Amino acid sequence: MSYYPIIGLEVHVELATKSGMFCGCPADSFGKEPNTNVCPVCLGLPGALPVPNKKAIEWTIMLGLALGCNINELSYFERKNYFYPDLPKGYQISQNVKPFCYEGKLGNIRINNIHLEEDTGKLIHQGEETFVDFNRSGVPLVEIVTEPDFRSIEEVDVYLKKLQRIIRYLGISNADMEKGSMRLEPSISMAKIKSQKSKVKSSNQNSKLLDGLDLPEYRVELKNINSFRFCRRALEFEIYRQTEMLESGKTPTQETRGWNEIKNLTFPQRSKEEAHDYRYFPEPDIPPIRFAQDKIEELKTKIGELPEAKANRFINQYGLTEYQAGILTEQKEMADYYEKVVGEMREMGEMRVTIANWIINKKIDWQKEPPESVAKKVAASQQTVAVDEKELEKIVQKVLAENPKVLEDYKNGKTQVLGVLIGKVVGISGADPRTVKTFLENYLPKPAG
Q: What is the reported pTM?
């Protein structure tokens, strides 16, 4: 292919606060009768004044810290001016010059900024008529904006799933795309490869620049996509559409386009505005917001263990494979449940891998069965066989030879890895875990410390 995709992302996430961004309306408006969840503030009626939601601001800062962002100690809201039927005031209270968070990173994808704004209303198309529902107008909406660092649809997919998982771990939103609480807006253009010898780097190779590419003169933004699958399809279609145009000597129009999931194609909506087109200016009804460093540090302590760190700990602490740890940490609730079952095993910590497999393979219903009853089931299921000591020694030697890193960790004082060796020996021999544990403790060199 003589053209290569240059992709950036804007991800909009409705925060799960109790009330709106600048008013007291309930933030959860999903499924309610149209235009019943509104007030003078979110409708922008004369004389109504906005009051910022403290919780929404704190959650935005926490997300920024989780994604390695810098935090602006002085920030403020601005009016983003544009006219559209779903915007009751004729402007949206948002951020541009001084967003709460800036210059972060998720994996090798650079995050330009994370800012907070109010959501707009929703257009409902029925036949030739269009209706406006303002129920979600004013819901706290955080926007995560990346640099154009994606060079493939696969990279986009990986990033979005990681981001959704982090948001859910923080507990700031359910990020449910079916309910519209997480909406995806990729921007894509196609860059011409300067020569066949040019090598285009993916973001996974820490590429920040368009090496070997001619920078495109346009950008197409795809609006309000509500599933990972539709995002993939829309990008696939745009890659095909834009490449066809470029190869025929045409330059795609800079515009926003929607996605028609029935026809599997994108369609034009309006010409793409730049920041200056919105005539941003500071919101006169909301004073600037300052953050003391100790407040930022306090919010940092509330983040907790994030999915990637938890998965790595599961691998090192419990002897799980990367696959097992990845599945168990998909949901924070499942990961917590696993650790509760492991904690119930006490003297049978070597069964950690078995417990993981039971949860992953749905041999137990982790959302219903109490951890203590699962622990008893796992313990009762272990059928042991008598193993000659010489035979056991051969198996132990084989396991140690295959797992030198685990053995080295044990020698260096990481005694918790003994459970990994016990599990592997039991898996081969079928011997009683307690017998294997005693044998290993006597057979292995004494750990340091």
A: 0.83
